[in-house]
């Protein structure tokens, strides 16, 4: 099964809403996880998997010509699992197995246990390097495949990200796109207060990348940026997506007096409200 | 007197040279082999591969973390990535990346740590990989090899490349005596090589210490002590049978390695022996202990830090006295 190449934005909006509902449902069922870190990346992942950018075969996860998606911010695993389920890798009903003993839906992605997961992540800062290895490897094999790596804005404090950025520029890797989910928060607070790495776009440019900053919740903007990324055959591309942590349920987080709400699940009661709130999103 | 001279061993090349030459040969045979370098290819000898296969050689600069994770990406696509750097920098600088993208994923990545041990000499303790074997052994699924000389390092390189799964190969900087002048065709991963048989004590060694163990065995023979000598080139998985036989048949064990005392060959052998139903035999260890070394010529360092033929000899005498 190859994904359709053109899907309407309306369809993607509905998919984004479904992914958000899955994220809330599965993390609340698990009683832990990172729902808000997952929610900020929803449009980015929706556009990749369901907007015709990732070429994949859910029934043949190891298909050599597939495009690769690497979730470097591994704590957003609920979003990845929701997308893989909706893409047909496994039944959507399995999502509530998240974090349960014996489940392949581990707290952070494990490529050995779950088909469709391209890299085992969860120790931050490593996904871009892994993606670079993929990108160079498929090029050696003359396979026309692209590699997308989703990073967090707190994560890019890891020096390894910039080692990978320099190496990708050296090898003029045109089939590698980094997407930074710039939601402005990391575990203990605002990224600008913990370790200010702004301006992120300029940093990638200084390393020799093509880089742009977009509204990460505008599906039109995300689709356009992903399309544009294909125009640089000998230069890696970075998309800095300005987002909102917990996007979709922010009013509820404000009621809880915790805009960041990092690394915790909503209570059943709040989750119910969140699902109702999301249901109203048109 | 240089190592091995007392028993007539000829000097050979360094184990890093053997690795580099064999890797280049394997490169001709296997198109899936790629090498990722942290700008030390002329030290680790991956330079030979680089010269023959520039398209499959990636020097990503002084960035060990990046290069190890990249290897994970290559391995996921069916390549056999070889990552070579100084043992100290590879294992210590990129340990988390090895944990995540090599061990946890059970990737077919070949880690090669050169300049291991204190015998690198003058460059000093910051460059000496003395904890690398312990770090490598700690990771689930990792195969850990420490070859003794040029011929066995060649065969070890080939074995590591043929093995499917993560491996750590430890090689050294200085030229070392040739223990296997027959080419070491008996080399098999996970199987100790018995270089000499005896009933009184077993000397278990790897790397540079194998030649010294052979010398010590000869000195002990002159005193009427019959030594078994095992080249325990594979630290993990350890050869349980060889350890059990050594304990049961010789009743005294000496383990010699150019490594810290914690987590190296000595610890692995002792753990294996402790699983036996009867294990009340004396153990003695020749290793670096629990300390960093210092700068200086290799021979002087080995003597100062008690990693010599004489030290193995004395350890054996001590073990025999406790039998």
Notable traits:
heterodimer, A: 282 residues, alpha/beta, Rossmann fold, two-stranded antiparallel ribbon, 40% helix, disordered N terminus, B: 323 residues, 7-stranded mixed beta sheet, 5-stranded mixed beta sheet, 13 helices
Short recap of the structure:
Chain A is α/β, with parallel strands linked by helices and 282 residues long. Chain A has eleven helices and seven strands. The longest helix of chain A is centred in the first third of the chain and has 22 residues.
Description:
Chain A is of the alpha/beta class and 282 residues long. Chain A has helices at residues 9-30, 35-39, 42-50, 77-86, 127-140, 159-170, 191-194, 200-206, 219-229, 250-255, 268-280; strands spanning 68-71, 147-152, 176-182, 185-186, 189-190, 210-215, 237-242. Helices cover 40% and strands 12% of the residues of chain A. Chain A has a 5-stranded parallel sheet, with helices on both faces. A two-stranded antiparallel ribbon of chain A has the order 4-5. Chain A is globular. Mean pLDDT of chain A is 95; it is low at 1-6. Chain B is α/β, with parallel strands linked by helices and 323 residues long. Chain B has 13 helices and 12 strands. In chain B, helix 1 (15-29) packs across helix 8 (150-162), helix 4 (64-76) packs parallel to helix 6 and helix 9 packs across helix 13. The longest helix of chain B has 15 residues, at 15-29. The interface between A and B is medium-sized, with 33 and 30 residues.
């Amino acid at each position: 099964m190859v994904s359709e190449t053109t899907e309407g934005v309306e369809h993607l909006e509905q998919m984004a809403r479904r992914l958000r509902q899955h994220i809330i449902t599965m993390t609340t069922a698990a009683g832990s996880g990172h729902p808000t870190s997952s929610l900020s990346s929803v449009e980015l992942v929706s556009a990749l998997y369901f907007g015709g950018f990732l070429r994949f075969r859910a029934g043949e996860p190891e298909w050599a010509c597939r495009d690769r998606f690497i979730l470097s911010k591994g704590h957003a695993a609920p979003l990845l699992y929701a997308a893989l389920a909706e893409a047909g890798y496994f039944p959507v009903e399995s999502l509530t197995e998240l974090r349960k003993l014996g489940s392949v839906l581990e707290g952070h992605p494990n490529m050995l246990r779950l088909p469709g997961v391209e890299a085992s992540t969860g120790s931050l800062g490593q996904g871009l390097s892994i993606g670079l290895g993929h990108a160079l490897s498929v090029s050696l094999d003359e396979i026309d495949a692209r590699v997308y790596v989703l990073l967090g804005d707190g994560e890019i404090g890891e020096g390894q990200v910039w080692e990978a950025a320099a190496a990708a520029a050296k090898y003029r890797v045109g089939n590698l796109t980094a997407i930074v989910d710039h939601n402005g928060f990391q575990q203990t607070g605002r990224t600008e207060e913990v370790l200010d790495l702004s301006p992120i776009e300029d940093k990638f440019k200084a390393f020799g990348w093509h880089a742009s900053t977009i509204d990460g919740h505008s599906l039109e903007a995300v689709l356009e940026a992903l399309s544009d990324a294909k125009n640089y055959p000998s230069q890696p591309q970075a998309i800095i997506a300005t987002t909102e942590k917990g996007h979709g349920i922010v009013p509820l987080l404000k009621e809880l007096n915790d805009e960041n709400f990092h690394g915790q699940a909503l209570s059943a009661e709040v989750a119910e409200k969140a699902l109702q709130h999301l249901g109203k999103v048109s | 007197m240089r190592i091995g001279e007392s028993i007539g061993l000829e000097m050979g090349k360094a184990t890093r040279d053997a690795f580099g030459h064999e890797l280049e040969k394997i490169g001709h045979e296997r198109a899936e082999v790629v090498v990722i370098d942290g700008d030390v290819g002329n030290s680790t000898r991956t330079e030979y591969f680089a010269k023959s296969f520039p398209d499959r050689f990636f020097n990503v600069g002084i960035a060990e973390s990046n290069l190890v994770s990249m290897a994970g990406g290559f391995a996921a696509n069916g390549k056999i990535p070889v990552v070579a750097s100084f043992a100290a920098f590879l294992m210590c600088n990129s340990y988390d990346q090895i944990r995540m993208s090599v061990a946890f994923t059970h990737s077919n990545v070949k880690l090669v740590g050169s300049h291991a041990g204190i015998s690198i000499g003058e460059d000093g303790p910051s460059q000496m990989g003395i904890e690398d074997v312990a770090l490598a052994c700690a990771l689930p699924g990792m195969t850990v090899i420490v070859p003794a000389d040029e011929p066995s390092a060649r065969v070890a390189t080939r074995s590591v490349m043929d093995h499917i799964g993560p491996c750590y190969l430890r090689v050294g900087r200085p030229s070392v005596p040739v223990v296997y002048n027959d080419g070491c065709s008996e080399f098999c991963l996970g199987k100790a090589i018995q270089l000499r048989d005896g009933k009184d004590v077993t000397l278990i060694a790897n790397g540079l210490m194998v030649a010294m163990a052979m010398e010590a065995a000869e000195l002990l023979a002159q005193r009427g002590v019959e030594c078994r000598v095992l080249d325990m080139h594979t630290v993990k998985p350890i050869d349980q049978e060889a350890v059990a036989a050594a304990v049961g048949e010789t009743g005294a064990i000496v383990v010699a390695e150019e490594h810290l005392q914690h987590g190296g060959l000595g610890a692995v052998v002792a753990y294996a022996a402790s699983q036996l139903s009867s294990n009340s035999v004396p153990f003695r260890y020749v290793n670096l202990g629990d300390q960093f070394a210092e700068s200086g010529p290799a021979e002087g360092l080995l003597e100062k830090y008690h990693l010599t033929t004489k030290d193995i000899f004395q350890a054996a005498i001590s073990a025999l006295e406790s039998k």
